[in-house]
């Protein structure tokens, strides 16, 4: 049996999705179900989230089906009946998807996505839906905070090598670009998504040479249009002085040094010293890139210190969303066969029914509050959940990533100042409408 493409395999799911499906099939439970995906609460370290991953979800929903190899596994697993295997041969997603556009800011209890489909279809897509939306949302939200902290300085994603798997690294490059990063070091992200790719050099290139300045010169000759040199392998300031000494020789060859990179030590202190060395050596146009365990907090400090750093490379802490490594999220049944449903578990209660979010702004155009209400309760304000798929098909062309990136930038501009400052424990009020409260009360009365 050949190894399936994990990005599209319908078996990239939890076993209980399939066991429940057989139960639904045997009982004829195929009426319309409504599930919503949302975050239960905001952690103290997050005042907002940025929705991401919708494009990959749409691709999955449109293409999801069981291959002959996957059906063979289902049949041989011993868990399922032959009639169920026949049923899976015909399985397709034929439902509707409503969602927030990628790049949209959202808060606790607001549905990021809503699936309306026959129950077996809506149930089976749960695991991959959460997997795709949760991770990219985490990465985009962390990246958005770095963008705010950077105050206009360009950011580059350096996180692939420390990502939790190949797909995570690739999707982090996409999500961070959506959130406002200038690009990524991940080559495949440019091929697949059009994310601009950036690169410098590693310490190993320097160490492979016996003379540091010789390593600089060899790299410049190999990459004459992209000469960004890593100068902290041995002594950062001495490395900068070697750059000054090398520059005239490279200029005679028609090669200009674009930048240097700092990757260790007190980056702010080194940046000031290196900038002085470069300027005094006539290299005021050479830019400084800083990398090494950066996140929004470190970036905020650098900006506050007015460090002369031109580019910031953010890796592990963004790709792994280090301070908030998971979204406290859920994909819950909100309606089945026309009957609103509500979970009442302690600490995990949900609001029933299909929902919509209306956004309200203050006089300066910043987000003031949101209203969470039923989908049929028309309200004032900006409606932020849109229909994306109908009967399993897109209702309009895919939104290009650059356009979603512009939407994300506009969303960040509309954040209130208390969220732009990244202070812990601050968020936006999400008001629950009377219509939704009445529906919850009616559902509770039926139990």
Structure notes:
The chain has 447 residues and is of the alpha/beta class. The chain has two domains: 15-139 and 325-445, nicotinate phosphoribosyltransferase, CATH 3.20.140.10; 154-319, Aldolase class I (TIM Barrel). It has 17 helices and 19 strands. It has a seven-stranded antiparallel beta sheet with strand order 13-12-1-5-3-17-18. A six-stranded parallel beta sheet has the order 7-6-11-10-9-8. A four-stranded mixed beta sheet has the order 16-14-15-19. Helix 13 links the parallel strand 10 and strand 11 (311-314). Helix 6 (126-150) packs across helix 7, helix 6 packs parallel to helix 13 (296-304) and helix 11 packs parallel to helix 12 (267-280). The longest helix has 25 residues, at 126-150. The chain starts with 14 loop residues before the first helix and ends with a helix. The mean pLDDT is 96. InterPro entries: Aldolase_TIM, N/Namide_PRibTrfase, NAPRTase_N, Nic_PRibTrfase-Fam, Nic_PRibTrfase_pncB, Nicotinate_pribotase-like_C. Residues 155-276 form the Nicotinate/nicotinamide phosphoribosyltransferase domain. Residues 11-133 form the Nicotinate phosphoribosyltransferase N-terminal domain.
